[in-house]
Design a protein that fits this description.
The protein is mostly beta strands. The chain is 3% helix and 35% strand. It is built from three helices and 27 strands. Strands 17, 18, 19, 20, 26 and 27 form a six-stranded antiparallel β-sheet that branches. Strands 8-9-10-11-15 form a five-stranded mixed β-sheet, with no helix packed on it. A four-stranded mixed β-sheet has the order 2-3-1-25, with no helix packed on it.
Length: 438
């Protein structure tokens, strides 16, 4: 009998998700009231913002006076939440060099159960062990620290890519749950000549069990924690461009996160770019969503998934109904299940836009409810995606919200219909028109 080919089974449905404010709350109980024992999360259906509360006992010095007023959530995935928590007068929300603080993982979430004394979902706080050997005891920069769950296990890895001062060399320090030590590896990247592009590292994301360090001007460095190597072999992927470098309008270098971000959405790595030609007016700024793809040979390429312009968004009736001004917004997050939907931040409001249709899909008529930031050493950066995370809820919390979200087969297969790939090391010509490129 002739063998029959079968299509691979469809991927499992995507979990419900929330928009998580990355600056956690710190409880200050009234006299005589007990302090919370565990971290807890107040969940709200998107586009409302959920918030995490970090009890005092998680802080390095658990007193009211020494409590960090801005613990910061570095990453969120199905393994839990990774936080940077400091001690007064320092704050966890600190992007400076060698910040004071410790790393904490909030995991094993339990749903709210008033009968058990849980008015909100709670988690177990696990402190990541300190490093034993100087000079790597402290984190060099929290923007270099990634957090990834290992597929098929309940384990996770925390890793920092450490760039040596005045040197092209780098090292990777990693901690795997279930152990009590950090492992240091020398970095090797065969596909990259020189490492000048690494400075600075702007972010780290995880997808499919891998970590990607991001330089928003140039590209990505990928690492597989399950690769059993004494060396950390990294993969370099350039970022794509809609316009040639000489034709692109210069963007402020101080805050590239306002107009560029790399995120995981619907199980793939995506790059969102707001760009225009040098002499174009602001309304001709394009919003472009790219998908990172890998061919059968393993070669990386970027596919332009969808594109629109601010002019098209502003002219849409859905935008006019919001009453928002025609101003250039700041990138806030990418929908974790639908990569067509980009969230922007403008005048304290979150706006979700379907780039394919140039249509507003999410808008709340009240200012975004974020943790109020107070002055401290240092002052937190301006609002951007550094203040928001899209968090796919772990299995234990998937019934915690009234709403459900599952990716449709049409949307899930749409990644196979993007425009022809752009080599990751080259720029591409601009696409004509707007919408999703078929």
């Amino acid at each position: 009998m002739a063998a029959t080919s079968r299509s691979p089974p469809p991927p499992p449905p995507l979990a419900p998700w929330v928009i998580l404010g990355r600056v956690a709350l710190v409880p200050y109980a009234a006299a005589g009231d007990p302090d919370p024992e565990d971290p807890s999360v107040e969940l709200a259906a998107p586009p409302l913002v959920s918030s995490l509360t970090v009890p005092l006992r998680v802080h390095p010095k658990p007193t009211y006076r020494d409590a960090d007023r801005h613990p910061y959530i570095l990453a969120a995935n199905d393994a839990g939440l990774l936080l940077h928590v400091s001690e007064g007068p320092f704050i966890g929300f600190d992007f400076g060099r060698n910040p004071m603080g410790v790393l904490v993982v909030a995991r094993d979430f339990l749903p709210a159960d008033p009968a058990a004394g849980r008015d909100a979902p709670t988690a177990t706080a696990v402190r990541v062990p300190d490093r034993a050997c100087p000079p790597q005891v402290r984190i060099a920069n929290i923007k270099h620290v990634g957090f990834v769950s290992l597929p098929g296990t309940d384990e996770y890895v925390v890793a920092e890519l450490r760039l040596l001062e005045d040197d092209d060399r780098a090292s990777l320090l990693s901690f795997r749950s279930g152990t009590d030590v950090w492992v240091e590896r020398e970095v090797l990247c065969p596909c990259m000549a020189g490492r000048e592009w690494l400075r600075p590292i702007d972010d780290v994301i995880s997808n499919d069990g891998k970590l990607w360090w991001v330089n928003l001007a140039s590209g990505l460095l990928g690492w597989d924690p399950l690769a059993n190597n004494q060396l950390a072999v990294l993969r370099h992927v350039h970022l794509p461009r809609v316009f040639a470098v000489d034709d692109t309008a210069p963007q402020p270098r101080e805050h590239p996160e306002h107009h560029r971000m790399v995120r995981a959405s619907n199980r793939k790595v995506r790059f969102v770019d707001m760009t225009r030609t040098r002499d174009a007016p602001l309304e001709e700024t394009l919003v472009v969503v790219w998908t990172l793809s890998f061919g059968e040979s393993g070669a990386a390429s970027w596919r332009q998934r969808c594109v629109t312009s601010l002019a098209e968004i502003w002219a849409n009736d859905s935008y006019r109904m919001t009453g928002m001004p025609e101003q250039v917004p700041v990138l806030a997050l990418l929908h974790p299940a639908n990569p067509d939907v980009v969230f922007f931040f403008l005048e304290q409001y979150l706006i979700g836009v379907d780039v394919h249709e140039s249509r507003v899909t999410e808008f709340v008529e009240e200012p975004c409810d974020l943790v109020e930031l107070v002055a401290g050493p240092p002052q937190p950066p301006p609002i951007s995606w550094r203040h928001f995370l899209a968090w796919m809820l772990p299995p234990s919390l998937q019934n915690a919200l009234d709403h459900e979200y599952s990716i449709s087969e049409e949307l899930d297969s749409q990644d196979d219909k993007d425009v022809a790939p752009t080599e990751a090391s080259q720029s591409s010509a601009p696409s004509s028109g707007v919408g999703r490129q078929e």
